[in-house]
Each structure stands twice: as C-alpha cells, then as structure tokens.
Structures
1.
Amino acid sequence: MPNPAPDIKLPPQLPTHFALVSGLIALPSEIVTGQALLVADGRIAAISAADGLPSDVPQIDVGGRLIAPGLIDIHIHGALGRTFNEPTAAAFATITRENARCGVTSLLATTATDAIDNLVAVLECAEQWMKTPQPGAQLLGVHVEGPYFSMAQRGAQDPAHIRNPDDGSVEQLLEYRDIIRILTFAPELPGALALTQRLVELGIVAAAGHSSAREEDAVPAINAGLRHMIHMWSAQSTTIREGPWRKPGLLEVSLTDERLTGEIIADGKHLPPTLMKLAYKCLGPDRLCAISDATSGAGLPAGTRFRMGGMEYEVSDGVGMMLDRSAFAGSTTLLNAMIPILVDQVHIPLVEALRMASLTPARVIGVDARKGSLETGKDADIAIFDADFSAWRTIIGGQWATL
Ligand SMILES: [Zn+2]
C-alpha cells in the first residue's frame, strides 16, 4: 500500500492538461507503477511511462498514493443528516459533497419508500439538479427503491406507503423516465410483470428487492428482463420448505442466474465475510457491485437519531439501526470505506474490489463507455486514496472536487 509523503503543494485549480505522477495507478485489471495518468480537457488522455512525459505538461505528484477510478455508488440514500427523500437542493448538496470528499465521483440518488407525491417531488428536484453543473459527486440519475414492496420483507422501509405496482401510481413516477436509472420492486406482487416489461421498454434497469418471491415468481420477471438484485441477503427471500419440498427464494436465484447483477452492502455489519465471499464466488467482480446503502446517519456519531421517509432510526454499532433493534436501517459507511473490508475481510484482490465499486456499477446502469475506469477517453473522475482509503483528493471531470 502507498506510503504517502506528507507535504505536497497542490495548485488550487487544476490546469486543463496535467499528469498525475508518483502514484500506483489502478487500471481495470492491474495496478501499475512508474506510469503517469494524463488528463486533457476533463478526460483521460493517456496512461504512459512517467519518465517520458513532455516537459510542458504540469505534473501533480501524489506522493506514492493510489490513483483509482472515482467510485460509483448506485444505492445511496444520504449522509450527514440529509436524505434524498428530501426534495431540496440543500440535501442534495450535502450528500453529493460528502461523497466527493470520500472519493465517490458519481452516484444515483436513491429514494426510500414514501408517499408518491413526495417521490415525485424528489424526482423533480433531481431533474432540476441535473440540468446545471454541480459541485460534489455527480448525480447520474435516480434509483427508485420502492414503494412496490413485500410487507413481510420491508426491512426499514416505511410500511405506511408500501403498495402494489398494479395501482396505477407508477406512471406518476415514470413521468421522470429520463432520469430514473433503476427501479426496485418485489417481483411477486400483482402488476410486477407488467412493470418489468414497461421498465425494459423505457431502458430503466428493473431490479428486485424487499421481496418474498419464490423462484417461480422471480423467473418470469427475469425472463421479461429484470436484471438486478439489490442488497443480497437484506430483505430478500430465501429457501423455504413446503411439506418435504424445498423452494428456492430470491437469494438462491440471485446467486445462480447468470443474467443477473447484484449488490452487497459491504460495511462489515450487514453481512459477515462468509456471505460476502459466497456472493463474490457466485457472481464474480464483474456482476457483483459494492454499494453503500448509506443513510442520513453516514458521517454522524453513534447515538445520533436520523430520519428517512417518515421513519426514525439511530446510528448504533457502526450501522443504521431500527429503534427497536429489530433490523438494520441501511449503513452509515460510504463506499470508500468498503474497499478495505472487501480486501481484508473477504480477501478480494484490491483491483477487483475497486472494480466492484466503479466499473461494475457503471456497467449496471449503462454508463461504462464514459465512466468507471481509468482508460483513455473516459471522464477524468479520479479518487486518490491514502493507505486507509480515505480520499486524499478527488478529481471530477478533470478538476478538484473538494479541497
Ligand atoms: Zn433496501
């Protein structure tokens, strides 16, 4: 791991052309040394030998640190006391800045189950937010998590607003089809198959979660184009017995159907290492995403109460907790802090752990042609990590995101 030099003078603004030097560079399948990462006009221009750089290219010395692709979190609800269920620019600004500070360069604003009117207000806010350039992690769209969920598998989702997809309300949400990237629902509910077909038609990722589905409920949805499984093991059905017969649930389908991508909350709390290892062995780093599922409790001290939708929770034991301690309520860890957990506890090679938090989620939402890895032509979204995976600096579109 990098052993950073302490005092490096950095320009307050990056020039349009520059080279990052003296770092380890995380390419998609290897980590290289002795190379420079060249950026021009907001994009990655080349990765080339550090000793052959033209003399007119300004060099930024990163002091031996790790130069990684900016992380991409496709399932994040909030941070620092704010959530994406709040339809305000102030909430969006707090969450996206805190993510940028931690090396997350893009994310999907993820909503929790709420009244349809409030979800519409959030979508409207996201649409306005995305129309103008913003500081902080870039919003690539919205992940609508719920409200079409199984009551039995609601986890920390607000039961007051859980509903079925055949009640017509989804069209109000789909008014914002251009910014919805993922819509997560329980595939066993009435209307779920028609919803899957509608989402596929609109180019929105149909995802399953908070579900009591048995295999026979899930397979028709997958055949219709459902492709993603959110937070495996969390609010996800598993094998049950009917008389002598074992019936696989959504978990076993997630682990075995090669058409699917999946997510794990890799905070070291939601899942013990053995379960994360099982997901990794079954899906591999190119179908399994690390996600934060961070709540507004992320970045707040233990004991702090926080709200999401109409529900109240507490930061406790390094995780979001229901007040009655019956279930977790999302994580309080942002994506950068999950990399060392994947490496140290699950024994995943660093290059693959990084890919699970960058290129793989980029591919899930179809933005991998321009984001997710340090490759020529892609956006210069870069996280420069210290040895403990706190972000030393974050670069978005070729400029410092935070200083
Ligand atoms: Zn959830």
Note: Residues 71-371 form a domain with the TIM Barrel fold (CATH 3.20.20.140).
2.
Amino acid sequence: MRAAKTPIDIVVSEVGPRDGLQSVARTMATGHKKAWIDALHAAGLREIEVGSFVPPKLMPQLADTAELVAFAKTLPGLLPSVLVPNLKGAERAIDSGAHAMLLPLSASHAHSLANLRKTPDEVVAELRRIVDLRDAKGSHCLVEVGISTAFGCTIQGRVEPAEVLRLVRAAVDAGVDRIGLADTVGYADPLQVGTLFEQGIEVAGDKLSCAHFHDTRGLGLANVFAAWQAGMRRFDACTGGLGGCPHAPGASGNVATEDVAYLFASVGVPTGLNFNALMALRERVASWVEGEPLHGAIWRAGLPRTVAA
Ligand SMILES: [Zn+2]
C-alpha cells in the first residue's frame, strides 16, 4: 500500500451531474445543478464531473456543461472535470477551462463497437490526438482515460485482464495524465478488483489513479475497499447513488458519495467530507429528480454513535 501524501488521504470525485443524470430522462434545471455543485463543494468535495461535451442533440440533459464548468471554477479549490466522447468534445473541454477531461475507452471490443462505434485501438488513437491538441493549445487540462467494462461486459461477457492491461499500457504510451478502471455494469468482485488494480499499477504507476464502481449487484463498496487496499486513492461516487445501468433496467447506479464517505470514516481514513452536509444534500437532490429512485445504504439508519461525522 502507498503511504499517505497529505492529511486527506482519499479523494472522492463526484460524478452525479454527469454519470448520475445521464440515465435520468427529465432534464434537471441548471440552477439545481449549480446548487448541487455548490453544496458538494461546501461538503468538502474538490473534484466534480460536472457534465459532458457530447452533442446537445444527443443528450439535452447535459447541454449546459460549459456554464457549469464556469460556475464550478468560481468555487475555491474546486476542480471541474468533463466527459468528452471525441476530439471535438475535447476541444470544447479545453476551451471551457475544465481542470480535466475524461475520455471513455471500453475494454470490451463488443461494447466499444456498440457504444462508441470504434474499436478500443481506434479510441487510443483518438486519445493521442486529444493529447496533441491539448499540448498544441498550451492548455493544462488533464487528459484522463476511463477504461470501462474493465471487469466484464453485458454484451461480451468476460473481459480478459490481459486486454485491460494492454490498453492501460497503450494509454500511458499515448501520453495521458490519468487512467481509471471502471466497472460500468456491476460485474466486478473484490478479489478481481484488487488483482487488476495491483497489476495496473505495475504497468502505469501513479497514472492509474481512479476507481469507478457501480453498485448494480451490491458489491460497490466492497470493490471500493479492495481498490483502496490495492493502492487507489481517488474514487468516483454519486450523491444518493443516482443513475442506473443502461444494460440492466432497474439496477442501481454509482456507489453513493455518502456511503463512500462513511466507508472511509468507519476505518478512520480521512476524506475531508462533511457527512451531515452530504446527507442533507441527498434529500435536496431527491426532490430535484422526483420519481427517480436513489440508492445507497447509510441514509437509512445514519451514522453509528462510534463514528464521528
Ligand atoms: Zn459510471
């Protein structure tokens, strides 16, 4: 395990305004998204994926991304990131002044073709073009690749760890700043997670820096813990576990931000997050997405008396 570099050892990176809302049909008002980002910042979060530069026609829910990046940059110390589907999106991300942009790369060949209409290696080539564009523009926007379906795929089934590690190596060679492994569809188990992150660190070192889990089948927090034991320190999470899985109707979404905060509080690892503020925010987000199911566990009973908020 790597030693703590700062008093706050864990970065919880909120993905609600992007990953969480992506599967919500009704468009959330920009004012509510700003209130959400503002409250996350007040609760101690310093990294938030605020939206995506996909064509607004494809995803009207996320059409206000540039405005949200600008808003997030007014909050002290907050680092907004955005998802980008391709070079065009990357250009908009750079122009928006986002701190980081995340390009999804599917480790499953079948998933990649179905969702991105590109092979994984074609996505790696796009990644290289994005790094070149960023450098040519003199931008400091970090380029991150999120390797999705890294632990299994609803279309293809098994995804070979060797293929995931090959893509990790290819991403390093393409010049990316950060790499994450994502269990997009909730197939991962904690032993698999520990092994793959350990192997990934051997290939990419500190560049492998993010773990993204969905709680589709109830193993989300166990997988977070396994990735932490393997050396990961940054975890994606979503307020109230909002968001589903496009390939598993009715399934729960990302691990809940307040659950991840509780997990690390329970083992005495500092996250810098204010638990009560997160719980209050959960209620507000629930009212903004009325009718959408929220998930997670800690909200039901609250903190035990033995754990400080
Ligand atoms: Zn996700």
Note: Residues 1-6 have pLDDT under 50 and may be disordered.
3.
Amino acid sequence: MVILTEGDHVWLETNTSGEFSAPIGAVVKQSSSGRILLLDDEGKEQWISASNINSVRPMHPTSVKGVDDMILIGDLNEAGILHNLLIRYRENVIYTYSGSILVALNPYQLLPFYTTEQINLYTNRRIGELPPHIFAIADNCYFNLRKNRKDQCCIISGESGAGKTESTKLMLQFLAAVSGQRLWIEQQILEATPILEAFGNAKTVKNDNSSRFGKYIEIYFSEDGIIVGAKVEQYLLEKSRVCLQALDERNYHIFYSMLMGMNTEQKKLLSLGTAHEYVYLTKGNCTSCDGHDDVKHYADNYSAMKILMFSDSEQWEINKLLAAILHLGNLHFQATVYNNLDCCELLESSHLSVATKLLEVNSLELEDAMTHRSILIRGECVSTPASKAQAAGSRDALVKGIYDHLFVWIVNKINTVINTVTVNNPGKACSSIGLLDIFGFENFNSNSFEQLCINFANEHLQQFFVSCIFKQEQEEYIQETIEWQHIEFTDNQKALDTLAVKPMSIISLIDEESKFPKGTDTTLLNKLNNHHSKSMIYIPPMSSHDTTFGITHFAGVVYYESKGFLEKNRDQLSSSIMQVVQSSKNKFLKQIFHTSFGSASGKPQNQRQICLEGSIKASGSNRQLPTLSRQFKQSLDNLMKILKACQPFFIRCIKPNEFKKPLLFDRELCIKQLRYSGMRETIRIRKSGYPIRFTFQDFMQQYKFVMRSALWQVKEENAHLCCKQIAESVIGTNGDWKIGRTKIFLKEKDHLSLELERDRILTAKALMIQKVMHGFKDRWNFLRQKGAACIIQSHWRGSQCRKKCQVMRQGFQRLQALFHSRKIVKEYEETRRRMTLFQAQCRGYLVRQNQSKRLEALTTIQAYARGMLIRKSYRRKKRDIQRCVGAQKLRFADQQHLGGLTQAKPEAEEEKSERLTRFAKLDMENERRQREEYLKKQKAKTEILNDINMVDNIFAFLPAVLAGQEGPGPQGFEDLEVKQEKLDEFDLDDMSLSSESDEEDDLAQYTFPKYAATYFQGSSTHTHIQRALRRPLLFHEDEVDVLASMAVWNIILRFMGDLPEPRTFAQTSEKHSNSLGKMSKVHLVTNQAVDEVQLTLKCLHTAACIVQSLYVRNMLNP
Ligand SMILES: Nc1ncnc2c1ncn2[C@@H]1O[C@H](COP(=O)(O)OP(=O)(O)O)[C@@H](O)[C@H]1O
Ligand SMILES: [Mg+2]
C-alpha cells in the first residue's frame, strides 16, 4: 500500500467508464487517519477513503513537472501523455515533442511565440536543442533539405479547428523568413493564402475559419536555399456548402466579404443587396462571424489578388459569377402537374434576368434546362419535365458547378504566378518542402459521401504515418537483425484495403455503380452488403430499411447515409445545363469550365473534360466520365507517391475544447484525438525503437569528423568497425545504439548528441578556417591600409614641409626685404649725410667764395665808393674852389670897378652868392639829365627780361659771383646755368649817388608775399603752414615733379618737426600683410621700398635743386 503525504502527485482512477476515459492526475492536499483529500487536474476535490486507496497510484516524477519530449515520460500511457499536455497547456506551452513528431495544442489565443526573434532563435537549431516549437520543425525541414538535398514534407493533421491551417501558415512564414531574400515571389506565396481562404474557407460550428478543401503546398528552393516558387494542389472542395449550410454555419467567406466590402456603385451594377436577402447565405441562419471582419477581408483579398496578378477585369468577372450564384439561389419553383407528371415552373423574379444577364445566357434556355431533365434512353437523350425538387437540384448543380470550377480556376491562376519554376523549366529539378494541410477525420451525426472521401484521405495519411513510424521500422529491425521488442500498433491497412485498394473495394463499388445508368443508392448499398458484410471493417445496415452503413476507421466507426452517394459521385451537370453554359456569351464562364478540367488534379480531369464535351456533342455515346471518387482516389495516390518520395515530418494538431476557448482542456476530446492519432503507440515505438538510422557509409560520411583524420580513409569492409568506433567514442560503449547488417541504429537523443558533437567539431574547424582566412584577409587589408597610410603620410608630410618652407621663404624674403631696406636706408642716410656734408661744404665754399667775392666786391665798391666820394668831394671842392676863385675874381673885379666904395663890397658879396647858387642849379640840372638818360636806356633793356632774368640782370653788376662756375652745372642745377650776359662797363664815378636810392625803391616791389600771391597755386599764401600740402605751391607739368615737391614739403615739415617721422617699411607692409599672400607681399614691400627710395632720392635731388635755387635767390635778394 502506498503511503501518501501532502504535496504528493498521484493518478486517480476515474469513475466514468466511457470509451475515452483515463486516470486523472491529482495532488494530495490533506492526509488524515487513512483518508486523503485530493485536488485533481480539473480542480475538483475529493476525499479518498482507505478502502478506495487502490484507485490511487503514485505519479512518476517526469509526469509531475512535465517533459518537452514525451519519450522521456515515465508513465507511458494515455493518462501520462494527457497530463503532460495539460500541465504544459495551462502554462501556455502548446508544443510538445514525441520524438520528432510535434504535438500542437490549439491555444485559441494569440501567443508571443511567432516573432522575428523567435524565428532567429530557432534558425539553424536541431530538434531538441530548444523547447519544442513549430519553427524547430520548419527549420529542420529546411536544414535537411539543404543538407541531404532531399525533398521534405510536413504532414499537418488533426480535427477541424485543431490548428492545421494556422500551423501551415506559420511554417510558410518561417520558411519565407529563413530563405531570407524578401523576394516578390515569397510575398506572392504568402498572399496566396488569403485568396484561398476567402474562396475555400467558411465558418463552421467547429472552426470560424474552417478550410473546406484540402491543400498541399510545395515550396521550391534553389540550390542556395532561396524560395524560387511554389505550387498549390487542392483537394475536394466542399461545393455543397455554396447551396446549403448547417445551422450556425456560413457559406464561403467571399460572399459575405463581397457584400460588405464592395462599394455601392459596384453592388448596383451587380444588383446586389445585403447577405440577408440571399437564400444561399442564410441557410445556416448566420451571416456574420465573430472575429472575422468581412470588410477588411474583402480589401485584403483584393490586394492579394493584385499581388497575384489577377487583372481588374478578371476580378470583376469573378464578382459577376459570385453575384450570379446569389441571384440563382433566389430563384423559386412552383410544383405543378402536367399530363399526370410532376413538373414545375419557375416563379417570376427579377433575379432570373439579373442572373442571366450576368452569366450572359439565354433566360429561356436556362429556365428550360432547370425545369426539364435529360435522360438517356437507349443511347438517346430524352427531355422530361422535372419536379420542383429536381429543378432546384439542377439549379444547385449549376451553382455548385460554377463555384467549383471558379475555385479550380483561381488555384490554377495562382499556380501560374507562383509556380514559375516547374512551368518554365520542366526538366529542372528543384528541392521542395511540401506542407499538407488536409481535412481531419470527420464523424458527424449524419455523414455523407464527402465524409467518406475525407475519411478515406485520412486513412491514407494514417497508413503513411503508420508505415513510416511503425511498419517500416519494425521490418527494418528484423532485416537488420536488431534485437527488438515487437510493439502492437493499430495498422489501418485493412481498412484502407476495404475502402479502396482491393478490387471490389467500397470506393470501386461506388464508382462502378455510378457508371450504371440504372444504378441507385439502394443497389449500391446492396452491393456493398454483398461484398463486405463479412468484413471486419464494413458494418452493414441494421435492417433492410436502413440506408446507413458503417465503416470502422482507424479513428473509430463512422456511419454513412447512402442516400445521394451516386449522384454526388457522378458529379455531373445535366447535358441541358452544360448546353446553357456552352452557349453563354460570358467568356470567363466558358473559360473556367474549360480550363478547370485541366487543373491540379491532372489527367483524369482532362479526360473528364473530353468525355464531357463528347457527351454534349453526342450524348448517346457510351463513354463514361471519371467519377468524383475516382478522381479523388487518383489525386490521393499521386499525393502519396509524392509524400513517400520525401523525408516526412509530422505535426499532430489537437483541439483542446469544442468552444474555441483558451485554457479550457477537455480531457475526453483530447484523449479521443490522441488515440486516433496513434500517439501512445508512436511514443512507445519511438521510446523503444531506434528512429534514426544510417547506412555505414552515410554514417561515416556524416560523422567521420568526430574522429581523428587518420580514420577518414576507411575501406568499405571496415566501415561498420569505424561506425562502431565513432558511436563508442561519442555515445559510449553502454549507449543505446545498435549495429545492424548494413546500418547503424540510434536513439534520437544519441543522434542529437552526435549532431552536436559534429557541429562542435565542424564549428571549431570552421572557426579555424575563418581565423586563418580572417587573419589572411586582415593582414592583407592591414598591409594595404599601411601602404595607403604611408602614402598619405608622405603626402601629408610633403605638404607640411612645403607649407613650412613657404612660410620660411616668406620670412627670409621679408628678412631680405628688411635687410635690403635697411641697407638702402643706410645707403640713403649715408648718401644724405654725404650730400648734406657736400651741400654744407658746397654752401660753405659758395658762401665763403661769395663772402670773399662780396668782400672783394665790397672792398672794390668801398674803394670805388671812397674813390668816387673822394673824387666827388675833390671835384666838388675843386669846383667850389674854382667857383670861389671865379667868384672872388669877379668880386675883386667888381670891387675894383666900384672902387673902393664901402658899399661895393656887400654888393660884390651878394653877386657872388647868386653866382654860386646858379652854378649849383646847373650842376643839379646836368645830373638829373644824365640820370634820366641812363634810366631810359635801362628800361629799354629790361623790357624783354623775365622775372629771374630781371633779377639776374638787376644783379648782373655782380659777375664775379658766378665767375668761378664755368662749364655745365651739376644735375639739378641746370636752371642756374643761364647765359652770362656781358655787362656794359661803366664807371661808378659816372653814376650819381641818387640813382642808387632810386633802384632800391624799385626792387622793393619784388617781395616774397607778392611773389607768393602771384605764383602760388590755390589758396596757398606766403605764410608758413604746419601741415602737408594738398597740391604743390607752384604749378608743375610733370607728375613726378608734383610728387617730388609734395615730398619735399613733407621733408621740410618733418625737418621742422611738424610732421612725424615716416614709419619703416616693415611697419607699413604689416598693414597689408593680412590681406595679401606672403610672396606677393614681399614683392610689394620690396618694390615699394625701391620705389620710395627712388622717389626719396628724386625728391632729395629736386629739393636740393630747389634749395639751391632758393638759396641763390635769397642770396640775390636778401
Ligand atoms: N498557433 C495558434 N495560435 C493562435 N491561434 C490559433 C493557433 N492555431 C489555431 N488557432 C486558432 O484556431 C482557429 C482554427 O485553426 P485552423 O488552423 O483554421 O484549424 P484547422 O485548419 O485545423 O481547421 C484559428 O482560426 C485560430 O483562431
Ligand atoms: Mg484549416
């Protein structure tokens, strides 16, 4: 007996003894006096008494926490598997492995598992490395595809609403992401899904977005692992849904989306209203679907169609057909009796005219085709009136035919866009990953022909699964003489044989009966009973009135209602209806009926088309059309062939509850699904078996890297030894692996460790290669960069040196200029000094000479003057004496004349004085006359003289002043070189003294102010000013003279201290240095200096001349 304490986990046997019950997991909450209080997985508490303690058994620790891979589970039973799924589901962990098979629970909520980060996380990881995920499966498909260059397929199975379609979309999303090119084709492949869902999905009670068709998407990859195309294969669209829906179910999404999303104008053109107005959309009494936004879906579908190159006219034609279907659905028939025959007539309605307008068919022809039936009687086609039900049936058949063909056309259209690879390059082999999203096992209260087909497809898939997982495996163990404990599993091969494989199988009987014109559902049922009543698979009807038969499928018994089987299987439109279609002017309608026969399902449909056309042309022909079951069987056989050629992966989707609610776990529903999917057996066989196997060569090839390189070249006969060695070194001698005759067998976990070891070694080697390559590349790069850096450096240094050199050169040039300027200044100063000295000496010499000459002249003048004065006084005295003597003589004579009279003496005296006065007057008269004559002479002479000549002439009496300066004068003294006029010699003694004073009076008018007023330019006066002149004082014609005179004035001002000394060249040039280039500045400074020096010299020279002339003039005019 087990002793349980609080917190222990246990299994509790449930009281319910239903088909799908299993012990439930529980935890001990309390334990007292032999009783224990348990809290079970469903949250119920119950006391277990000591007497019932046997219904409780301890739980394996692996089941307590839950495991990622159910192979590791300790309690390998339904309860253990279920509990494991449950505890994970509660934590929103929806994925669990069973070996390499993924079990996926539908979370019914959006989980953050499908982000780009998750895609990146699962990229290039082996199964088992990370927690279970659908991306891990997708990645392994992709990895195997690239590694083994073998096509991969993933079979996603499960009940309707279990999450198959969502899983397919996630797989596609991952593959598009890892293909990594973000190409247009990837986008187109992804955009095919919304179109297919719009036309092929509908709301059912089980799933709001239930796919009503099966599909197999093959994605083609280039050698580089890039998606290059895809192909969609569709299976068995549930076309009856177009006309009839169960309660709470809807028609295909596209009808509701169209009515909600289409604009009013378009709707008006198609005479469309709301969904409630159409019989075909209200059969299920449900026109809306929670969480399905019809308006948005219409827009999405429209854009997806654009991406998939559906032209606007094609889209409009599709809308026209959809509208026509809705209008046809609103046609009603009234039963009548004609000639004792049940017949009917079409009730008048605007819908007929709209429908015929849209289909572009003759309304009378259409009406006739619906209200009459064509029957083949002895090879002849006979038309009979149809009953109301038959007319409605014909109408529905036409509608279903149109929709079915439209769907096939859409799939074909998508394929022409996305499947460019196999169409354009038929011979080119492309690796592919196939994703099979096909309807799950169905068992309703009333099952019909469609359910038989669906369940038949599921039997096929189950057989494929069983053969992959169990049969092949066990057979191989036996062949390879591996020690192996046989596992019982449910093999559905018998069911498959009974259904389709054997000659008189159920499908072939249905097919055969459909071909008989007299064949009915009853005759079919009888045949089935006759052939299969003893079969374990077939369950005959309970009574002769019962029309249902049962089939024991791998997932349980399903009872089928045989009524309508043959008609559905024949899947034919009456020839009159076909005639209407053929006579239509609607090209698109004709096109879809024409092309859909050559669709995905391949040849059979082509044959069907040929036969169909044949039957229209010659309806009496015996040729039979392939039935729906035959087509379906054929396409399934093709699919199986494809799947068998691939390396398969399995995803088992499980629906946790029927209410589409998150975190709600219906144990019974889950047990049912687990059992049907053979999960327990799968786990068991995976656990005890060796799912991974390699031929020795393959194994060697794959894992030789884990050994030393010496072992790489192993001969074939030693291959198994080598494999053994590899396995021993990595897994260990005690590891659970087996060596067969040609193969080595491994457990998944050991395979994982081998893979990891191989990865590690390859990674290390790759790293080594990368290192070397990187080193080489980096070294090469480094050397290149170093070379480039050296060139840059040398260029940089060169430019820096050139810059420095330039600066230094400029410096030197400045220095040179400074030096030159200083030298010139020095020379100039020296010259000036010498000049000054020379001038001083000249002046001194001249002054001295002048002085001595003046002195000499003065002495001469003095001598002459004195002589003249003495002579004058002598002559005067002499004259006076002579006069006195004469007067005396006359006085004496008078006296004598008068004789001694006393009075005579004063009279003599008086006469004497009178005579003297007269003589004096005569003298004065003579003198005046002489002077006047002299002046007249002088005036005549001086009339033509200019001012200087005049002055010179005035002083021309001083010839001795210039007497010593014979020959041409020095430069600048040319103006002084005037022709010496030969002066008339005269005797000073002859000149009267009074004339001197007259001349002095005349010279007085040549004053400096007068001269200044006369000759100075502008407003300049004779007064001394202390500022620079704006223009020279005197007028000069030559510009240089103007500048020179200004410069002289400046020099004079500077000399007088009225103007500051000029700045040095360096100082002046500095001002311009900022704006000029260094070299040009140096040139400028040098040129300026030279110019200035030259100018200064010229000025000095001019100044010297002027000073000289002034001096001379001053000398002349003191
Ligand atoms: N992985 C998932 N995450 C979130 N919701 C999911 C997931 N798988 C399925 N579902 C939900 O379940 C519904 C039915 O899934 P679906 O794939 O259409 O089922 P099936 O194709 O098997 O009939 C989806 O509409 C979605 O709401
Ligand atoms: Mg689906």
Note: The chain is about 55% helix and 10% strand.
